[in-house]
Amino acid sequence: MNGEFVLVALILIGMLGRSPIITTAACVLLIVKLIHLERFLPSIERRGLEIGLLFLTLAVLVPFASGRVQVKDVINAFTSWTGWVALMGGAVATYMNAKGLEMLKFDPQLIVGLVIGSIIGIVTLRGIPVGPLMAAGITALILKLAQMLAGK
């Protein structure tokens, strides 16, 4: 019953915060639990991130498929300073994602804070939850900085 209570609370938080993603996700999981399909929860947990990233990547690549991004745009990514900054941003983001994944393997209970922090960011800052790995990567960076400042 505890899981259902948390999901209902997330539905309410999502509705109050005008976050259809949180509301829909919590509704889908509540339905899965209420119609006794809990056996699919491990699969959703294991493959949900991959499926979500697949659709996110599809959405990002649509401009290439539709022809809105031309070869000149790709060349511009390598010849302009903003293109170089974007290339560095992509490289740094993927590196941070890897560090976040590494941190979660060693300290999996951090996922609770990441999820609650993401919900707070969605509801109060109108953020978009693109993935726990980036949140974990930023957390790993903040923890590393805190350790350096503390002299550890």
UniProtKB/TrEMBL annotation:
- InterPro entries in the record: UPF0756_TM (IPR007382)
The UniProt entry's sequence similarity note says: Belongs to the UPF0756 family.
Q: What is this protein called?
A: UPF0756 membrane protein H7C18_06435
The protein's superkingdom reads Bacteria
Localization terms from the record = Cell membrane
Tell me how this protein sits in the membrane.
Answer: Multi-pass membrane protein
Annotated HAMAP family: UPF0756
Q: What keywords does the record list, in alphabetical order? A: Cell membrane, Membrane, Transmembrane, Transmembrane helix
GO CC: one term?
plasma membrane
Give the taxonomic lineage as stored in the record. Answer: Bacteria, Bacillati, Bacillota, Bacilli, Bacillales
- The primary location reported for this protein is membrane
